[in-house]
Design goal:
transmembrane; Metallo-depent_PP-like; ten-stranded mixed beta sheet; Metallophosphoesterase; membrane; transmembrane helix; alpha/beta
């Protein structure tokens, strides 16, 4: 096949966590030096156009875009995780047409990727196995007629190698392809003129960074072609409108872009599309809607902690001259908030089942802490050999509590608040308390008086597996309780690795200048695959043994050429 299908990323694996932490640290320390966006100024800054019979580059002497055309466009994000979920979504995107809740929806002529095309960190081999291979298997060759095109916005996981692998795959002009999709962009950001005065702008904002000067110059040149009556779709790498509820700086770069590049032209931003959070959520106002659709393949992210209303930009923004703050209302989520809450309870059985190595780490810490407490007990006389293979009790307490505090303050936590410290300390105290309880039970058994190293061997054989399971359940309980105050919400679902509830958007630009959005979801992705008959060159290589049942995540959303958003 040319690639190796990968299992879903075990996000709580100690080896993976340590390796990813090193890459994230290096990206933070040297990101400014590895930032290739400034160098992209040497690449062609092509403004592209898409439409039925009108694909190509928009030149300075190009005539006005003809009205009356139609175009189907797909949007998907957060794709490159395990093969089953990624290929399920790629397979659906590749089919000539889908029938969903009575709607006949042909394949998108354009496919836009909203970021995080590969997990956990970017490399050429990871792209091959986790993204390019599954998508090539879904659409091996271009179908007869017009070849569909593919555009991509880099997410934070695409940035962990300095954007090197991303540029090699996507930034090749008309020479590149991913299976039957042709890549056309010439930089890590792009602008596409669509029919009937619609524009799609994919911007590249490195995590926590500014918008670089070459990118601003490029979009300023694009904005010179816009005017009153033009309608804009912006694709940022993350839903900063939601993230700004916890991090008031999160929306600053996007607000600056809209305020300084788009607003002076008189054009209207009607739609913002993003991934990064692995669910579907739509916030709306009469003049604009904000959609997060990160269901391309990565583990499910909860929806029940989403606020019902958000202010964009936040009123407490530190920007000197921010845009006027407007309130947006949560209109729909997938899965629903109720379903998301029920799924969160699965942490008690999914986490131990899917993270055995992480449980082994918890069991090791519990066993070492118990042995340290046993050695510190007054009525136990430990020999020199026993003390050489154990850790002082005070040091183990420090390790347990410090580890719990670091867990409560991951990179995604944003600003560290008192609740992060309080939960970390309480979790650490509970973990130490579990070891104290284990010590009491161990001292009550006749094993302590045996000749060394028999107590150690019995601790490994008996205490280790039981303490690993108890530590895992305690950790699951902590995640469930911490999520109630918006701490470790990501870890609550990452540890479960739920591969269902995936989806993407199919957009139709109509001849009257409007836009209709069909949010397509699938509750259960394929797991068992069989080879498909070679009926045509562009046929998918595999099909699910059990047909995937599609549904609309909510009724189609209609954006009129002018006026309000309608359902």
């Amino acid at each position: 096949m040319g690639f190796t299908p990968r299992r879903a990323v075990p996000w709580l694996s100690p080896v993976l966590l340590s390796g990813t932490a090193v890459r994230v640290m290096l990206a933070d320390l040297f990101g400014a030096y590895l930032d290739k966006r400034e160098l992209q100024d040497a690449l062609p800054g092509r403004i592209l156009r898409e439409g039925r019979g009108y694909t190509g580059e928009l030149t300075d002497d190009e005539a006005e875009w003809p009205d009356g055309g139609e175009l189907w466009l797909d949007f998907v994000a957060d794709t490159g995780d395990g093969f089953n979920a990624t290929y399920s979504v790629a397979y659906l995107l590749a089919q000539p047409r889908l029938t969903v809740d009575g709607h006949d929806l042909p394949r998108g002529e354009v496919l836009v990727l909203g970021g995080d095309q590969v997990y956990p960190t970017a490399s050429g081999q990871q792209y091959e196995d986790r993204f390019k291979g599954p998508f090539r298997a879904a659409l091996p060759m271009a179908p007869e007629g017009v070849q569909p095109r593919m555009y991509a916005v880099p997410g934070n996981h695409d940035w962990y190698d300095g954007l090197t692998a991303f540029l090699r795959l996507f930034v090749r002009g008309n020479e590149g392809s991913v299976g039957g999709w042709r890549t056309r962009q010439s930089r890590s950001y792009f602008a596409i003129q669509l029919p009937n005065r619609w524009w799609l702008l994919g911007i590249d904002v490195q995590a926590g960074a500014y918008i670089d000067d070459p990118q601003l110059r490029y979009f300023t040149r694009v904005a010179a072609r816009m005017g009153p009556g033009d309608k804009i779709i912006i694709c940022p790498p993350s839903p900063s409108w939601v993230e700004a509820t916890d991090d008031r700086k999160a929306y600053d770069s996007l607000d600056y872009f809209v305020r300084t590049v788009v607003a002076p032209t008189g054009a209207e931003v009607r739609l913002m599309l993003s991934g990064d959070l692995h669910h579907y959520a739509r916030y709306e106002r009469p003049e604009r809607q904000l959609i997060t659709c990160g269901g391309g393949g990565a583990y499910l992210y909860p929806t029940h902690e989403l606020p019902d209303r958000i202010e964009v930009p936040p009123r407490r923004s530190l920007v000197r001259n921010p845009s006027p703050s407007r309130e947006f209302t949560l209109a729909a989520t997938y899965p629903t908030k109720g379903r998301s809450r029920r799924l969160s309870l699965g942490v008690f059985w999914r986490l131990p089942w899917r993270n055995p190595v992480f449980l082994a780490l918890l069991g090791l810490l519990q066993t070492l802490t118990m042995l340290a407490f046993v050695n510190a007990a007054d009525r136990v006389v430990a020999g020199v050999e026993q003390r050489l293979v154990t850790v002082p009790a005070a040091l183990m307490v420090v390790i347990d509590v410090l580890g719990a505090c670091l867990l409560a303050m991951p990179r995604s936590a944003g600003q560290r608040r008192p609740r992060h410290w309080a939960l970390g300390l309480l979790h650490g105290a509970a973990f130490v308390g579990l070891a104290v309880l284990g010590t009491w039970a161990w001292l009550s058994l006749p094993f302590v008086g045996l000749t060394w190293p028999l107590p150690l061997l019995l601790a490994v054989v008996l205490y280790f597996p039981l303490s690993a399971l108890a530590g895992g359940e305690l950790f699951a309980l902590y995640l469930l309780l911490a999520s109630k105050v918006s701490v470790n919400v990501n870890e609550l679902f990452a540890g479960q690795g739920i591969t269902g509830y995936k989806g993407f958007l199919r957009l139709r630009l109509t001849a009257d200048g409007g836009l209709t959005i069909y949010p397509i979801g699938v509750d259960r992705t394929g797991r068992r695959w069989r080879a498909t008959p070679a009926t045509r060159p562009d046929a998918s290589w595999f099909e699910s043994g059990k047909p995937m049942r599609l549904r609309l995540m909510e009724p189609p959303i209609r954006i009129a050429a002018q006026g309000e958003i309608k359902e």
